[in-house]
Design a protein that fits this description.
The chain contains 3 helices and 9 strands. By secondary structure, the chain is mainly β. The chain has one domain (25-157): Pnp Oxidase, Chain A, CATH 2.30.110.10. It binds flavin mononucleotide.
């Protein structure tokens, strides 16, 4: 049995983003003008399994913020290591400054249930409708009801269970 007598020394550390590891997802969205955008998001998580819901935290200054606000939907795309360069670019460039999707040759497909694009090069795409949002501070947390989940055929079984161990997450 482990002994509790060996005490690790502790000291106070920074509070900001102290919950780690953080997911690294790409959130895709579409404005009412039909223009698409994608940004990198680390403030993201499951927040209900019945009904299935996920949340994403978006800083209001992001170009994508207005698109999600006005459309009421978004897609969470899980990212494989092979997509790292694209993830990094989309997370460090704003659509405000140019067409970053064209620059990185990002493939898009229409969602099945929501009016936002999915990224077919990502292994899992989670289509969501915004049912609520909470301004927590720096971020507005958008609560998304999961409307449809796409998974690469090779990683999902006949019942739709995803084998997440086959994804090399960033
Ligand atoms: C690893 C990583 C995590 C990020 N997490 C978030 C996040 O949770 N929320 C957010 O609003 N921006 C986040 N960003 C920053 C946006 O992706 C970045 O500002 C992007 O350029 C915004 O694009 P847009 O202005 O076209 O919407 C993150 C960036 C990186 C690299």
């Amino acid at each position: 049995m482990d002994t509790l007598n060996e005490v690790t020394e502790k000291k106070e550390a920074k509070k900001k983003s102290c919950l780690q590891p953080a997911p690294k997802v790409l959130v895709s969205c579409r404005g009412l003008d039909g223009k698409n955008n994608v940004l990198a998001v680390g403030y993201c998580g499951n927040c209900s399994y019945d009904p299935p819901m996920v949340m994403v935290g978006i800083v209001p200054s992001r170009y994508s913020y207005k698109l999600i606000k006005e459309s009421g939907c978004f897609v969470v795309n899980l990212v494989d290591r092979r997509y790292k360069d694209t993830f990094d670019y989309l997370g460090s460039h704003s659509k405000r400054d140019g067409d970053k999707l064209a620059k990185m040759n990002v493939k898009l497909q229409d969602g099945k249930k929501v009016n936002a694009p999915i990224l077919p090069d990502c292994p899992v795409n989670i289509e969501c409708t915004v049912v609520d949002s909470i301004v927590t501070g720096s971020h507005e947390m958008f609560i998304g009801k999961v409307e449809y989940v796409h998974a690469d055929a090779g990683i999902a079984d006949a019942d739709g269970n995803i084998d997440f161990s086959q994804i090399n997450f960033l």
